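FIELD: query
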Amino acid sequence: MTFGEKLKSLRQQNDMTQDELAERLYVTRTAVSKWENDRGFPGIDSLKQISALFGVSLDDLISDDDVKNGRLLDEKRAKIFRIPAAVCLALAFALAFLTAYVSVWCSIPCVLAAGGFIVCALLSKPAYKRKAARENAAAYIVSRVAIAAVFLIAAVTLFIELFG
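FIELD: result
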């Protein structure tokens, strides 16, 4: 039984509508509907509230299937950013070429495209994998500092090239 099925069953056993449950959890009815249809998963605070409201343990509320479903949803959300990341990277390369051979003013959109690539690339990794990467704090910090340094060097170089 999935989390959504469990939630719907508990709600119906307690003669509650989705609106009533949403009010008690301080969320929207749409959120409750998504949870019940396994199209979304509540945060830990909402899970604690649901557990207390219905008098069930978190272990009973969440099974291994629910964790797997949460990861699948996370993977699906992350995939959305893969194509924009590739487009931003290609655009950055094209604009870098134009900067070198056509006009130095093409470097401004090149830096913006590179920034877009960095953001989309970071978001294209599922949240649970990003959390696992944070556990290795040294590597996580070094990678973030390196990304920031490269971007800062590019921006400073651009500024010097344009106005120096």
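FIELD: remark
The first helix runs from residue 3 to 13.
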